[in-house]
Amino acid sequence: SRQRRNENLKAAPATSPYNLSEYFKQFVFPQNECELHNFRLSFSQLKWDKWIIAPQRYSPQYCQGDCPRAVGHRYGSPVHTMVQNLIYEKLDPSVPKPSCVPAEYSPLSVLTIEPDGSIVYKEYEDMIATKCTCR
Amino acid sequence: PHSRDRGGSDKASGFLAAPEDTASELNPVLQLPKGARRGYALLPPLLKVLSDQGSRSWDSQVPRLQPDSRALRYMKRLYKMSATKEGIPKAHKGHLYNTVRLLTPCSECGHGHSDLVKGDVHSVDLLFNLDRVTALEHLLKSVLLYSFDTSVPISSSMTFICHLSIKEHDFSSQVCPSISHSLAFSLHFEVSKRKWVEIDVTSFLQPLIATNRRNIHMAVNFTCLMGDPQQSTKLENPVNVTLVPPSLLLYLNDTSEQAYHRWNSLGHRRKSLVRARQRNGPLEDPTGDKGKRNAQGKRA
User: Fold this and answer.
1) Mean pLDDT along residues A77-106
2) SS3 category, A27
């Protein structure tokens, strides 16, 4: 596609800035692009700090933003995402657009008190989002 | 997970909630099929309360015994050694466990603190309840955790020669002889008031846990001679060492899906590095630098 763009560029007559920006609009990425956002929660807010000893606060993070049409290259999305985007745009708008969701996570170590008063340290998988994708 | 047929534009009928369970609207867990509800019971407390989405504050509904303060101090120290400030498990080499349980002996056995002075024998009857250990938590190592508190801070270093013998209390099974285990070790006190001593009893406990015992009942004899015979140190003012009944520490490998499996992340990191080289997208750093966990495939 880079080759085709270069050819188009050569063929295109000297255009005023207005047409150029129009031309490049097809490649622009949404302002509100799909990305990782910070969110810090403390277990006392959930009233769980009586039995969760550590950590007292933790940042699960979350993914939010729009998914552009050309998702493959930028978000590591599977081909299906582009197909679903095509279905949404061309065939059936009731089929949802691809969503901005976590793609990779980090684990979290948690120290808790059990009902019988024993104490348990456990490492939980997938507790912190570290990367987003569109799918 | 259930799938819905969306052929063409007409919508198939949606998934109907089970009519007979009107209570299920109140409690999301009751909407789960029977098998999943049994799985729900196995979930660790944190995931139980997450799947309830806090609809019932789990902690207020479940009566809770307060843990022993010494045990709590020990586990907080273990947490600091095992996780970063943000709570992410540190990448320890050879750290195969992803769960550590500290059990304090149950109180009905009626033993309090006792002083161990100059070669006293400290024998105690311990009953540990293993109900909280799930079927997917496999024992890697077990330790009797003793905490020695000296009545006064020790001015100089001091050595104890100790001997510990454990015998299982199980009158029900006459057939197999009760398991016993004994070992000798020396205990060296530096200038400190408190000392943790971890005595490995894995070989003693492994056969008991393997038979899925829910209660471990053991008699523990603990003898310590103060002063080191070789150096024949004479103690002007003998120090009282308070010996509290030990806690039982279980290092476990939880193979459930929700638990973090360190060895999986090694494999995953190798795959993402390969994928990164192929695609080399702007978001994917080719060096695979993911903060702390950047052990290239080679080191692993």
Assistant:
1) 91
2) helix
